[in-house]
UniProtKB/TrEMBL annotation:
Alphabetical keyword list: Membrane, Transmembrane, Transmembrane helix, Transport
Organism expressing this protein natively: Scleroderma citrinum Foug A
Protein's name in the database: Major facilitator superfamily (MFS) profile domain-containing protein
GO molecular function, one term: transmembrane transporter activity
Cellular component per GO, a single term: membrane
Cell location: Membrane
Amino acid sequence: MDGVGGKPAWAWIFILEGLITVVAGAVSPWIIVDFPENASFLTEAERTVVIRRLQCDNQFSAVGERIKCKHVKKSFTEWKTYAGRYKATPANLLTVPVYIVACIFTCIVGVLGDRYRRRGLFNLICLPVAATGFIILLASRDAKLSYFAVFLAACGVFPCISNIVAWVANNVEGSSKRSVSLAMTITSGNLQGIVSSNIYRAKQTPWYPTGHGIALMYVTLGIIGTLILHYILKRENARRDRGERDEIIQGQEGGHIANGCFESVEEAKRGKGDEWSGFRYTL
């Protein structure tokens, strides 16, 4: 399609891929269901199983929730949301093994993170691996060693991307609040592409010290941020274990007026989401 419409072939790749995304987004309201309760393709037994699984994962809104402005606004103030020397073709082929191995590690981290519910721990395992890779890339002037370092960097960074998104999802309750928080998290991550496209300068080929240095800085900030978030979440869980966040429930003893008054535990769950005293954050 080179020259069609006065545009080069590479431009048409972006146009066609973009059109597919636009069309998919336009039809998604009729394809994607909001809640299991609205999924006509599920049997009653399947719907019950799905809802119970979601509720066991601390998603109290699994049975349905109307979008409320207060939940959307809460998302914007939610602190948890803000925690080559080779030619082109051979070089591109060399990236294939890197992506394959990184994909495998991403899947492994995802499965283990779900099983043990320790998102922060896996960040603290993966990010130092990535840091090691970028340190080697900064120091190395050997192509083979640098290629090995790329594996380390990719296997350290890629699993953390999905792990962080899942961490946010685990710790934000309420479908409307969660959707906004996830959108903000993913958008923030995608915007970093603007940074990466400008820090790897052609004049610094093939070692790119500025790019690797800034990437190492980001990884270091990720380690620090993970430690801080883990500490805050662990402290908050401890406060809830001690009853400091208990609400006043009609007909029950205990609770603190500052935490709110509710007619039932279910009302407290739905009204407070992840701020409910019975909710425990994933560490």
